[in-house]
């Protein structure tokens, strides 16, 4: 595929993993002798359209992250994150030197991203400048109040949003520049683009296998999928 810009991936690995509840942040949890973070880096390092990877890590884990990154030639920098995911993202964006690039922003704790999904994100980013992968719910969706159903929701128009999300550099950096306060806290980056720039954000199909490791209950399914995707 022809691409007019370099592709830089930010891997966000500066969360504490409080819902996971281990004494090590979940991105450093090992399955078959490899950390979740390594599986995630490997996906982007192996993708032919990705040129560079920047990892945003917990300040106290920078040395450990540098050690892990050694075997991935596309990793150019490991930088410290902040108190929220948004602050970590903003730090990552500030570390990008190539201002004429496409940026993929990814949760380090999603270690199963099909290569094809990354290609489709990059192929679509030129059009709107912002593309996100989403999946439909296979369960019925409701709104609840005090354990009583208030409303049944339309499963076809309410989607679950995943990462990686892909942006033109100027779109994502403008969105963050328009957030003047030091403390920002959004669950993902596309929300900020919508709120600050109000531009159309393109939706493409995500993958049901692209699970975010959140609690210990996710481990059995992630272990099984890793076998298939990473040949562990
Ligand atoms: N993240 C980050 N910096 C933060 C918070 C989160 O880089 N200050 C990253 C996490 O490392 C993770 C991704 O954002 O890869 C998604 O966040 P989440 O699943 O919420 O991870 P944690 O914040 O670590 O977990 P928890 O909310 O349970 O504490
Ligand atoms: Mg969190």
Tell me the layout of helices and strands.
Blueprint: E1 6-13, E2 30-31, E3 34-35, H1 36-46, E4 52-57, H2 62-69, E5 75-80, H3 85-94, E6 101-107, H4 115-128, E7 130-136, E8 141-145, E9 148-153, E10 159-161, E11 165-168, H5 169-177, H6 189-197, E12 202-205, H7 219-230
Parallel strand pairs: 1-4, 1-6, 4-5, 7-12
Antiparallel strand pairs: 2-3, 6-11, 7-10, 7-11, 8-9
Helix pairs in contact: 5-6
Bound molecules: cytidine-5'-triphosphate and magnesium ion.
Q: Helical amount among residues, as a percent range?
A: 25-40%
Number of strands: 12
- State the separation between the terminal residues, measured CA to CA: 30 Å
Low-confidence stretches: none
Mean pLDDT: 96
The hetero compounds bound to this protein are: cytidine-5'-triphosphate, magnesium ion
Which series of helices and strands comes N to C?
Answer: EEEHEHEHEHEEEEEHHEH
- Counting DSSP H or I runs of 4 or more residues, the number of helices is 7
What Rg is obtained from the alpha carbons, in whole angstroms? 17 Å
- What does the main sheet amount to? 8 strands, mixed
Q: What amount of the residues lies in strands?
A: 25-35%
What sort of overall outline do the alpha carbons produce when their principal axes are compared? globular
